[in-house]
Design a protein that fits this description.
The chain is mostly helical and 68 residues long. Helices cover 69% and strands 0% of the residues.
Length: 68
Amino acid sequence: MIAHATEPLRHRLDGLNDFLPIEPTECRAQSDLIDAAFIISVAVGLLLAFANPLSAAFAGAVTKALAG
């Protein structure tokens, strides 16, 4: 059966529900979360590579320990 152009898209896609177990909006939300996790991990990596707050804290602790 050929769908008419004025027929709602949802009715034309009803046959795809057997192949797609989740809604497309759920797919989009999952891919957004994966992208966000990647972006956050890159940001933390760049922070540690360039700002390096861990070595600054370590250097301060060593200086304090050596000073007495």
